[in-house]
């Protein structure tokens, strides 16, 4: 499956901690878009899509949630709960996220600006596309 957990270096002293995330340095793409999600109810399921080309780095600077990742062959669940760890997801991976803590903030760094044509929002269509690309 095309994902990776990236641990970021934490710098700090007695006054606090800092994590720097730099495109093309400690993440493998140039950041073109940043957005964040907050105020999500604990029983919500978000995402429910894949991207044809987009790459994303996703992390929870506050709180925690779970990502279910699916490449059409296998499914994995990854819990994000450390502010210095990011989930790097490449293209053609179906993602759903859930199990939000009450204080959860999900931050997303993306390799491209928003493009609706890059989204696959129907799971059966996703399966057809990933199956045809591996044939």
Strand and helix map with partners:
Elements: E1 3-7, E2 10-13, E3 16-19, E4 33-38, E5 46-51, E6 56-62, E7 65-70, E8 75-80, E9 85-89, E10 94-98, E11 105-110, E12 119-120, H1 123-134
Report on the structure:
With 135 residues, the chain is mainly β. Helix content is 9%, strand content 46%. The protein has one helix and twelve strands, in the order ββββββββββββα. It has one helix at residues 123-134, and strands spanning 3-7, 10-13, 16-19, 33-38, 46-51, 56-62, 65-70, 75-80, 85-89, 94-98, 105-110, 119-120. Strands 1-9-6-11-4 form a five-stranded antiparallel β-sheet, with no helix packed on it. The protein has a five-stranded antiparallel β-sheet with strand order 8-7-10-5-12. Strand 2 (10-13) and strand 3 (16-19) form a beta hairpin. The longest helix has 12 residues, at 123-134. The chain starts with a strand and ends with a helix.
